[in-house]
Protein 1
Amino acid sequence: MTSIDDIRKQAERREERKTAAEAQGVSPATAIDVADDLGVEGLVETNPVDVTAVDRSDQSYRRLMFRRFRRSISGMIGLVLVSLLFFVSVFAYFFAPVDPKASYLAFSPPDAVSFTSRDGGFSLRPRVYPTIETGELDPITFQPLTGPDYENPIDLGFFVRGFPYRIFGLIPSDIHFFGAVDGRPVHFLGTDKLGRDILSRAIVGSRISLFIAVIVVTITTVVGTTVGISSGYFGGRIDTWVQRFVEIVLAFPQLPLYLALTTLIPITAPSNVFIAFVIAVLAALGWAQLSREVRGKSLALARIEYVRAAMAVGAGDGRIIFRHILPNVLSHVIVAVTIAIPTVVLLESFLGFLGFAVKPPLISWGLMLQDTGTFSVIGSYPWILSPVAFVLVTVFAFNALGDGLRDAVDPY
Amino acid sequence: MDTANTFAPAERFDLGTHGRELILDARNIAVSFKVEDGHIEAVKDVSFQLHSGETIAIVGESGSGKSVTARTVMGLLSRRAKVSPDSHIWLDGDDIRRYSPSQMRELRGNRVSMIFQEPMSSLNPVFTIGAQICEVLRLHNRISKTDAMKRAKALLEEVHIPEPEARLRQYPHQLSGGQRQRVMIAIALANRPDVLIADEPTTALDVTVQAQILNLIKELKAKYGMAVILITHDLTIVRHFSDYVYVMQRGEVKEHNRTAELFANPRHPYTRHLLASEPKGEANPLVEDTGTVLEGRKVRVAFTLKRGGMFRPDYFDLVAVDSLDLDLRRHETLGLVGESGSGKTTFGQALIRLVHLDSGEVLFDGVPIQDKTRRQMRPLRSRMQIVFQDPYASLNPRMSIRQIIEEGLVVNGIGSDSRERLERIRTALDQAGMPTNILSRFPHEFSGGQRQRIAIARAIALEPEFILLDEPTSALDLSVQAQIIDLLRKLQDEKGLSYLFISHDLKVVRALCHRVMVMQHGKIVEQGPVNEILTNPQTDYARRLVRAAFEVAA
Amino acid sequence: MLRFLLKRILATIPVLFVLSVVTFSIIHSRPGDYGDFVYAMLVARGSSTVEAQRAAEAAREEYGLNDPLPVRYVNWITGIVTRGDFGHSFYYNRPVADVVAERLPPTIILALTCHILATIFGVSLGIIAATRQYSWVDTLISFVSFIGMTVPRFLLAIIILYILAFRLNAQNFGTFFSPQFGGAPWSWAKFVDLVQHVWPVVFIATFGGLAYNMRVMRGNLLDTLNAQYVETARAKGLPESAVVLKHAVPNALHPLVAYQGVVLPYMLTGEIEVAIVFSLATVGPAIVGSMAVGDIYVTATFMLVLAATLLVGNIIADILLAALDPRVRIGGAKA
């Protein structure tokens, strides 16, 4: 052990030993702990030819991982939430009760679902008393006051008819998951400064936010993995130069750079170009850390015995990379992906909060947070912060999933 | 308790006939571990007795429970271990199983000490040697720091470490494995314990160092009248160093007896099986000169390494293989023997072009291959194969057995269609002694010995002429080792294979090789027919090696 | 030791150089510049477009905004290297160096404080969690750490801001001190006032870092507790607390120190994010503000300074590692 590089290498070697142990397929929690306790080097030696004594049934490595994953509570919760998220996002218009572009009463508070009827009796059918201007003026500000309209309750139901849309952009429909029975607008999370329903916008906005996140993460993953594997496997001069480049990229203070890059995006550009820019900006730095980690693993794997056996057998680089290195690196990469997606979603929201977001008619969570910077607005109309909840749920869901995956893949 | 086993009663056969004092009496030790899906009974019912001044050996293969037994005496088991309340361990009359934790702590490092298998990781890397020795002294005695340091220096002298004064201020990573083990012994003996437990103390050391350490323990034991429990799997060590032997298998004692008698008259079938597993036999008789299959001329491999701290880096060249010649004849097994750092593995792998040569020539079947590109080497690859030491890292855990063995066939275009390849795979597995219905299983389902057989099957599926065997049995249990040796001999006979056999274990070399080359520090020290070298070594180093391997004498 | 330091510092210079070129180019590529800002301001105040245009052109001339990019860059760099002159801030009408000197120290002090607190608490909690593995304490701590690592810091900042502003009627955001303490000499009361103003920033940034440290420490300690030398320590008869604290923890700290390269930017980013939300007079809002108006030298300098800070932080981390680990300090010369 000499320099800092050697300590990093030692950490890499620990990683290598972990990889090797994992690569050896030794189920760590049981085998190694118990092995240490028992002073055993590995699995108990049985009569060599009596393979029937091995009582584990036909189990592929993947199935083992699934079993471990299923045992992780956070992982299962995450999986359910993420699936739900994507499902809602794909069928966004189905789930949105109101047309996200239509304007109603500005800054109206969330409609409360009540089960009481006008005279105070209990009724099973949920209803909402919509907000209307009561005709009175606020004594101080002389702004019209708003309040619930008890004269005209809106009954709610599932699978109601509402504003028209197209499923997958093709099939016309007007059925919505939940909303007013008679098609009138209901605002469960209130409306924003232009009177648009927040809940519907948030649901539809998930599309863009998740889309950006998925694309960015795909790019960074592909680039990061490719760079990492090439650097680690081929080594030599390619490795040295690539690592120097990665070091420079990693030295950039990330947030300020994103801020700087987003100012590059011309305000007048059409939406598609704008999204492409945002994606490019966010992907610019994100691949570096992953490439470092993949490189570490590739370095270890390039020296492991079964890879050398493949070389001894005459396998070419391509075959070795795709059949031996990539599969063993993939598990780590998958975990990194599930952790990266919420990071990008967060970044997009933060940039939106600062004023750098997609432009209407597109909707994203970042855009929805753009107006929340002023104190007075938050004070009077706190419900415009609701997109925060969506971001929180998304972040939580993916992180939980990532945690579960990590425990399944790398139980150390 | 295997009540039908009269070979392993709870009491020793020579109890009461000893002149010596009974220091440790363990009865009915039973330990179980809680694991994910249930319990594992690591030790079922073990009893043994120890007198002062003697060494008893506990012998077993992996999974026998010998290490757990040792740790039970010290009270070093993890939280998941449960020791049966019927277990008793009397140390000089007191039942230490009934001791409170603080009483046990007083015992450890004081009256009962333990040294472990891995010297490389047994010492804390961030403290100096002196600090670590003083720690155990000041823990159990009221002495000042200066006095403790003086005692530490004296201890280092006792364990024959040169320049003890300087060593006190050094850190563990600056010492070799053998020296670290000596320091461990110094720490263990610092407070003149009554009992020393040595858990495989030399398994991770070179064979010459091994002999030195074991003789050191013997010397100190005699000097202080200690009692020693020696845990090991190596029968040679047992034969030379212990007075009484306990043979364990799967958590039970199968047989125990005085050493000489046990080796002369093993009674339990397992003991017999174990003794029979010592590498025996010799290489197949050689046909007359059939030509050279692999030749190396002035092969040189050097690495540039860095030493010196972060603030004063210093580069130097390490010549792993220093211009060596080698020639391997057909159907022959050539042994390449040496200790760690000798360069034997590097040499072997350089010969089959898995490691880069800095200079020299390698000829395979008369054709120079040292300058060939990867692509040019490909057609030759199927003729030269390799089997590695570590059975756990040689098989890709994500590939099925079929895919693992098939890879070579696919890459080399052997076998015109899938069915023909399957035939070849089945034949290879069969020849390696594995059943052929395992094709869709995965490596983690198999034990070390079975995996090694699969690795051998992978090698022979390509019908090579030459196989590089890089310590193929070092990581295996004794009984499995014997089987693999038999298998290798059989395959050589049937297929006319040539082997380059790299090993540090002279006993295995004797059983398998025709000729042997002894390496040290990148050079060949001596070479010749195996019987000559092993019975009549000419050079000093070879002599030391042979003595250490067969008599465990320094 | 000195030679090592020199070598590392020299190695960071090319990195900084590349960084400065890249950031400079990026900043200057933005559509519109300070001249546009002047124009917009004047028009908003009622000047005619012609007048505003003239003023904008004058500003451009004065600040050399019409020179080609490479010329501007070279001028800037020579200014830095020879005179220590980082350029002129159009918006504040002061030398950039002054602006930086005003804003950077609070940022660094805050980030450092958060970092130290996060380390102390994170490591302690990590030790507790590792030694009580599988107990309810461990599960609780792991849960808290999970929350800490997933809850986005700027969102937390917004929520706290909301609560403070509207539920608790707190005032005086955006400053470090209440008006009465502004220029007053240091006293205990002033310190308390300072804490009252900055606690959200410290809390939020620390919380995230703490969670991360705790995770890493717990993992490392669990690994270390399986090491052979830990068993040796027990075999000597040491009490368990000494085994953990004296033998295991120092070894578990190493990877943590080596990870400073990842943690430092994280802490810095956190501090910046939260400070932006709270408009505290530190680096974050300054960068955002200057980018919005095209105050290019301010932006470029801040980026450069931040990058330099991170690189220096890495060097310090390396030295710290050498101090902790004798294997790094002294090479292995086996006799």
Protein 2
Amino acid sequence: MKFISSFFDKNYQTPSWLTNKLSKKNLSRRKMLKGTLKSAGGATVVAALPFSAWSTAPLSLPEQLKSDPWLTLDSVLNHLLPTSKTGPGAKEIQATTYLFNLVNLQPTEQDEIDFIYKGVGWLNGYSQSQLQKNFVELAVQDKETLLRGISQSRAGQNWLNTLLGYIIEATLTPPVYGGNANQIGWQWLEHQGGFPLPSEGTRFYEVPNQQSRVAVDTVGKTAKNIDVVNLVASRQLPKNKGKKS
Amino acid sequence: MNYDICIVGSGAGASPVAYSLAKAGAKVLVLEKGPWLTEKEFYKDELAISLRNVYNPKLEDEQHVIEEQYQYDNGETYWQGEATSESGWSFWNGTVVGGSSNFMSGYFHRLKPIDFRLKSTFGVIDGANVEDWPISYHDLEPYYAQVERDVGVSGKTVDHPNQEPRSTDFIYPPLAEHAISSWIDKAAKLIGYHAIPVPRAILSKPAMGRKSCEYSGYCSSYGCASGAKGSGRAALLNHAVAGGNCVIKPQSKVYKIATDSKGKISGILYYDGRGRKQTATAKIYVVACQAIETSRLLLASTGEKFPKGLANNNGQVGKNLVFSAGGTGSGDFNYNELSEQQVNELKQVGPFINRSLQDWYQINDKNFNGANSKGIAKGGTIDFLFHQNPVARAGGSQWGVDENENDQLVWGEQLKQNLKKEFTTYKTLRFEVFNDWLPNDDCFVSLDNDITDKWGDAVAKVRIGYHNHDLKVGEYLSKKAEKLLTAMGAKNVSSSVSGYPPSNLMAGGCRFGDDPKTSVLNKNCQAHEVDNLFITDGSFMPTGGSVPYTFTIYANAFRVADHIKQKLQLS
């Protein structure tokens, strides 16, 4: 992608990781017969995705919240899902914690993380050009006007939709991922979560032997399986005892 | 290590063979591409199961190419492939020990006698390659009974017009039922339908070292944490391994079945978990990697005697792939139109609906304009279900429309209202229609010339053409289901039938039959061209029936296992 300087840059195109995500959700809308001829054999194999550091999250969220990008992201999330008498907001749900974990713990594509961060720069650039202040310094109504403004651009819409999607995930996924604090999201929406729920050590990216994680320390965790294989393979196999089968 | 049997794959087609043969004293090796997870690694985690799809390969590492039909402006059509890493449309259904059976819903309807002889009953349909099965329901019936016992199926028999013959009754009683089941029964009776209980491959009481269902409300598509769901792993492989005769090697990706100059299998070539090439040998080889991957492996296994792929000298491998035709539909129950008691009943989470309709398993209705002018046709099954995944349910809540009816993002109080309304004012009852996907010349597996997996092997290319007759049947059945929802008082009743295949319901590609020119396997699912090769996943099915496949795959694999035992002279 070319260097993009703002939400309104004409060179912006929806990035492939995002179109991919959207197409997954919209398979039912796919049309069987399409009017356009597609280039033949145009498929390319994408190289293995780079993962963000699994266990080397730099600073804790409270430290990060003192400066950008997390200062602004926190403010945007709190604006998108405000605390009010109608129910908990991003703050109580801990949507920022969820997003922080998404970036630092979940195996999120680097392109997507970069996009989330770039949006912060674009937002503050736009905020400065319009009101000579950073986003976090604005009054609620000015924040609203600014976000409405960027949502008119494709890049702005993609960025906000990404954050809104993660606010929904934060509200409704198991609390171990950082959002839905004490199941506040489920309680608010009267949803009954399942059981057992994952906890630290059994989050989806900690499932042993995941194919995407073969290179990441799985040896200890596969021991139980390897034991069984070795045990059985090395044991004298019993003769057929004439069991009916 | 000298093995009697080497099985490629570990799911519903593989596990009965491993279980039966190991129990009979044979030495069994199971090669599974995915990891070996257990109950301890399965949680009710929407991120794991669907949003991040943890139990399947990344599409950039391993994918398929899906060929769809397109049209030029002048009306001419052509087929064009699209890599699934581009489209995001995964055809993987559980790459772990036990395969997709870990994640099935376990709707265990048997096929019916008529499913074994569609061609002789309903005649030829132009554009479809329908063939009768070389065996009858009678041949498979004892094995359905065995699955009900050994895998564990909970249910009860009721009299209804399309009840298939049964030699035994259910051993495990039905699972606890949701209140809405009685609503369905009442409305069905009112409009002259027969709502029947659905047998489920989920234990209603502890047995065979497994716990019974814990009714978490999250079942379909989730791995089972109690062991109640009858996956091939929990129900069969665990016993096979514990008995000492079965070795499972997870993270073993088979890439070729090697043959010698006489056309005899000389070994199974695979990559182990560290990417090293390994070879396994045995007396008998069994392939059961789910339909698409089984055909892919055979096509990739060329040799001196098999220039077009193993067992493919008649060009039949990969042909006549079938999915499940039909569609889905739903209706909403608005809480403000119901009594407090009804609302409380609806809100119940945990027990199963377990109701289906099979009144139109055979359509005999002169208003039905299918291939037969008298309105006689093979019909299908309608099952009812709730969706539980909350993130999926909330999807789209951030979208509204502006004054010009353009899509517009919403947030703030509007978003909160949308979410609150979505979750607390109504509940949706859904149905799924299952009818035969007619085998046809435009639905098959081949190898892609350009795209390879992460090991460098050609991926499967799948053409997904369907027969229009499938849509007519699907729509006919959907209207019947819609009528029931309306009779129940549901609002926004609608359905959607399309020719798009459900990527989790596949069979065919190596169909069995008596004629080697038109089939890959004989009636024992042994390759016509290779004496010591058996295929025991859904690939063998010439027609798929109008129910989910897993039960029949299990039953047939037990049947083939008996044949292999005889061949090895085991009791």
Protein 3
Amino acid sequence: MSDRMVRFGVKPLAFLASAAPAGWLVWAALGGHLSANPLSDITNQTGDWAIRFLCITLALTPVRRLTGWNALAKFRRMAGLYAFFYGTLHLLTYVIADRFAGLDFPDGIASWTTAISLAKSVGEDISKRPFITIGFAAWSTMLPLAVTSTAGWIRRLGGRRWNRLHKLVYATGLLAVAHYWWLVKADVRRPLTYGAIVVALLVARAAWTMCYSAAARVGRPGPLPRPAA
Amino acid sequence: MLIKPARDIASSEITSRTAYVSRREFLRAAAAVTAAASTGALASEARLQAKGAPHGRKLANVKRGELTLPGEKPNTWEDITSYNNFYEFGTDKSDPATNAGKFVASPWKVTIDGECNKKGVMDLEDVLKGETLEERVYRHRCVEAWSMVIPWVGFPLANLIKRVEPTSKARYVEFTSIADSKMMPGVRYPVLNWPYREGLRMDEALHPLTLLVVGLYDEVLPAQDGAPLRLAVPWKYGFKHAKSIVRIRFVEKQPLNSWQEQAANEYGFYANVNPTVDHPRWSQASERRIGEFFRRKTLMFNGYADQVQSLYAGLDLRRNY
């Protein structure tokens, strides 16, 4: 696939497709197409999509190595930023629908008191409820990755350090799955599926690294085709 | 600096035609799988909004109950019949409405056994015989911190209990729900240890607020709400309200309810609505009334403290959650 085709064809399409769930949610919420508890639906859906995009992000490199389709490398940043985007929507929905909506407003809604009690309510909840703590930790690990996702930051950090920093995304994946797992009442099938995907991708990555460092020590090409980038 | 001459590429290192052709096929297959998966995901989201139940048979001669809540606006038929926790139909809130179509609630038999004089199998018609149906508008509080206001139609459980004459050994009542995998797809997965079981202490079961429900909004109860016979115990979390009851058993020892069996540290036997005792994973201090944005403060015993708190005098509610 040519560079032009990726840049002007596939990439914009992938961008739109990735934004589609958010667009669908806005449409469904405004049109009354969600369930009787729309705030809960929005919380769940944005969380689901954050985990799905994390899985996609983590899968891109292994799939690229397996298939040799190197153009996939060009989608890593987009997929990662979409994971951050849906994770941020998920966090904001929680802050608004779960925390803000539960406040008292002694000085009216638009007041310093509201801002302070909201900050307190979010802070207390994060420190008190372990599955919220873990969810917030998952989002927090994505923050430095999103900030340093620009070409400028890659240059400033240097490829090696940047790469090391961005390994954090595996921690994000594990934390996100733990967060989901902890919140369900009894039916763990969905968090189990996401957990299996994240762990499999982690293992694939570890196996790859081990193969290669072993091969590098012996000084002969490894058993698998070398990555192009 | 020593520059090694480039080695010729060994023929073994050249990707064979079959390998790269199959790689293309793999990519095509992968693309197809991805497309199918995303279509599936979107389709499953389109089902988020389950339609409410079709309207059923009208119940005749429903009296307006004295224990109805004044000043509360009931949720709509649509809300009450499309947003349900009924794991036998599936664990999503929309699953019961989606999967209720195959459920057959008639004929229906209820087994009465254990510590009582009139054991036996009763037809639903016999259960209802001689009872005056009344509408009771109750607050309904789910352990997940959402709530509704529901116009149930039924009669006091106490009436049925008196008819079957429990013995002096009967200290608790155990309710068993139907678990028929042909009509209820959720039963195929052991999410809980089926069939669903719940229990009440005898004085709770005999309390005038405890209702055996057969209807909603003056109509026959839809399957997703526990047709044809369910409990409403308004000062307790929703999971105490056994649905589609097929067995009522009188016992001497406190029965093990399904959620307690599943996670005893999170769900107790009493499950009284209590804003001061949090679920281990979330707060019970407030709730979202379905249809509202701002959360409401949860009331002690769900607002029924005047009627029921004497039942629990001397009981440590923190330990007996």
Protein 4
Amino acid sequence: MIRVENLTKEFSGLKAVDNISFNVKKGTIFAFLGPNGAGKTTTIKMLTTLLRPTDGKIWINGYDCSKEQDEVRKSFGIVFQDPSLDDELTAMENMEFHGVLYKIPTKIRRQRIKELLGIVDLWGRKDNLVKTFSGGMKRRLEIARGLLHHPKIFFLDEPTLGLDPQTRKKIWDYIKELNQKYQTTIFFTTHYMDEAEKMAEEIAIIDNGKIIIRGTASRLKAKTQTNSLEDAFISLTGKTIREQESTGLDRMRMFRRKRMRNK
Amino acid sequence: MTTIYILWLRQLKRYWRSRSRIFGSLGQPIFLLISLGFGMKSTFAQAGRGDYINFLSPGIIAQAVIFMAIFSGIELIWDRQFGFLKETLVAPVSRFKIVIGRTLGGATVAVLQGCIVFILTLFVGFRPTNIILLPVALVILFLISILYTALGTAIASTLKDLHGFQLIMNFLVMPSFFLSGALFPLQEAPNLLKNISLMNPLTYGVDALRQILTGTGYFGIETDILILTTLSTLLLIIGSYLFSKIEI
């Protein structure tokens, strides 16, 4: 479903993603883990056609990301790390907007919107402006929206960040159901290791732009001789706290700081 | 087509829902109309130039239009800041259609704003000489709107955050307005001022509006429309190109 070969992204000479390759099979729940600034979001942006890779190739659902962008875009749904709803529109209007952009015929669109808003418990609030929604409600709406065009692959960039346990559970139950029912491939990132351990059939850990290990949670634990994925993660990526380097400029500053320190 | 329509509709809904923006942006034209319009009225008449309100009103309408148009274009930065832009960028639609939809939406909003200001000018004493030509005035307003929405989009495509916004408003919108012949007749302006104004697209917009509404133009309506259309097309192309290059 997802095939990545020698993917690299440089920001002003610094490698945010450094020559990574991996495959995700159809119907897999795949966790993409790593400390802050490891290259997770940059990778997702390249997989979803928002960023052009410096080097390397990506195939999504069999389509080449650099050549068949529209086919690629039809194949996936995404929930971004930060909200991406229009606050000045209602929940319904946000869904409609998405449905029209993805060219879903009106009748099917209406029906699916009703079904999806029902599942995420927002049907009763469909005509409220999104700016009146809480963080959890917005996240649920984004999930519903991302699924409206029945994507083959669903990307979730920290989907449960800042949500209460009830909402987290509900969201995961739904994602799991989706995965089983439609064989939707799930590609997600998270900092909650318990979530990854419980949900993911396969895990990849990325650090400093490189994938350092791949496999099931039990393989990762066995390899590091630890009892939980959290311990395994820390033993693999070290104990230092990472600074968030969201832009190339931040990475450059970090790079300079490191050099100064070494002098 | 539906892509363009839904983006257009979104702009209209946002405009309609932000009443404070509608009323807020009426403040400046009203202030200019009253202070300048009444303040300069007798001086202008004594100089044998006729009624200043009639001279000034087309310029004020044009000013309200470009303000709203650039603002609609620049709104792209908000969309980027608040994330909504990503939703449109990962959708399987061409970026060109997105730009067209946004620009048409922004332009429609700006024309609506221009119509409101037109009605206000009637209250302070503006008397268009030829009512039958009002639809033509709408076309001119639309051309100006497209031009400046596309300009706003082009600028916003290259900006990453809101910091540049105030700069654009101060160094683009205000000079465009003051150097457009909206406030004084260009015929008698010093050469330097006149030459700068000749390079300002809004000059031709104001001139066209004045020609249609009051019957006194400077360049001739054909020249005005030709220049406005050419520049709108050009900016739309530049805007689309810059927008297509956006990476997040």
